[in-house]
Amino acid sequence: MQELRYCAIAVNHGTGNEKLINYLYEVKSVRLVKRCDMTIEQAGKVDDTNLTEYWLLELGYVRPLTQSVVMPGHRAFRFQLTNASDLLEAKNWQDLPKRYSVLS
User: Fold this and answer.
1) pLDDT top residue among 16 and 7
2) Per residue in 29-84, pLDDT tens?
3) What region, left, alpha or beta, does residue 85 occupy, with left being phi > 0 and alpha being psi -120 to 50 degrees?
4) What is residue 94's predicted lDDT score, i.e. its pLDDT?
5) Which H or E run contains 86?
6) How confident is the model over 19-30, as pLDDT tens digits?
7) For residue 8, how many C-alpha atoms fall within 13 Å in the half-sphere facing its CB?
8) What is the rounded distance in angstroms from the CA atom of residue 50 to the CA atom of residue 60?
9) Which of 10, 32, 52, 57 is 20 to 30 Å from 38 at the Cα level?
10) Which SS3 state, helix, strand or coil, does residue 6 take?
């Protein structure tokens, strides 16, 4: 996690099941933070008793992609490690190379 340089987030658009990745964000910092130490802006709500640790990413500049990357609509959280150049060339989630099979 400490080596992340960019982050891209798939977002629902409209009524379909697919999600689109439209932006690539710079990752300025990555920290492991207890939920009770997060602000409402970071976590969505304050929970002073939750000691569970979460990865907190500070995002920097944003770069719009020239074409959206389509991700099949799954409600479950999924992530994939890749590099920025592969994301910039991809048209859909399946185009991204599977670099770390242990994470799949």
Assistant:
1) 7
2) 999 999 999 999 999 998 999 999 999 999 999 999 999 888 876 666 667 778 88
3) alpha
4) 80
5) helix 84-89
6) 888 999 999 999
7) 27
8) 27
9) 10
10) strand
Q: How far apart are CA 49 and CA 46, in angstroms?
A: 9
| Cα dihedral 95, 97, 98, 100 sign | negative
User: What span, in angstroms and rounded, lies between the C-alpha atoms of 68 and 66?
Assistant: 7
Q: Could you tell me the two tokens for 10? A: 């798939």
Four-residue CA torsion sign, 35, 37, 38, 44:
positive
Which SS3 state, helix, strand or coil, does residue 36 take? helix
What are the DSSP E strand ranges found in 1-104?
6-7, 10-12, 19-34, 53-71
